[in-house]
Please model this.
Amino acid sequence: METLNIVFIGCVETSYQLLNHLLENANDRVKIVGVVTKESSTFHSDFQSLKPLAARFNIPLFNYNQNKTEMNDWLKHIKPDIIYCFGWSHLLNEDTLSIPEKGVIGFHPTKLPENRGRHPIVWTLALGLNETASTFFYMKENADDGEIISQSIIPLENRENARTLYNKIIHTAKDQMIEMTYHLAKDNVTPVIQNDSHANYWRKRCKEDGRIDWRMSTAAIDRLVRALTSPYIGAHVEYQTQEIKVLEAFPVEVSNKTLVNIEPGKVVAVNGSRIQVKCSDGIIELIEHDFQTLPEAGEYLM
Model:
């Protein structure tokens, strides 16, 4: 039986964990023949180079530096049967996609065709969805619209946050990837064409999306903070012209009668390092944050 030769592309924590799992669990019909990664990143808060894994397992490595022609020449020299591209923010061009005989496999943590596009974990939490999915699919030039090879539904728990959901997705994807790889090695996959009429695309989030607007509800602020906590950069507020990160918050139950005349953004209490702030419909307590000087009750956060 022939060996399935795989090149693995990625540069985030998900990429690292999936590649490590594949290297430790693949059978003798599967071989990682090359790794494409980066030395550093200015925009991945969960960046993790695959270089240490390539070195430990003695795998040929290509460090990507925005030159797709050089990368494609290297891939053509390696001659992979298939490419796994998990955790990579650059769209692959037609030249790259045509190199491996068995195609290029991508990964997206949503229930495709729903929720294609950017920042899937953040949007899933910020929008308060009840479930998402771990999805592997054949990549095409357009983002996230290729035939689905494997999809596993992931329910969200109450008050799920970015770290717990991130870990849950990786845990699901690991076993899913191994099973998928064995089927690919046997040419035993039945891809499912996505129904584009059910598709939507999430946009790229910007810095302003992470700012807590105290006119928001307690539930919306709570979701925003949970969506942007570690491994991401955190939500933020402004205090005395400084940007302050907030990584954990919790709604506080209080009588509405005590809030009727209080404006959004006003600090109503400070207990140790915990700061209670009025928002549109209640009080939110900031629990984990990077305030160097705590505000006092009666001050305002912007």
About this structure: The chain has seven helices and 14 strands. The helical segments are 13-25, 51-56, 68-78, 94-97, 120-126, 162-185, 218-228.
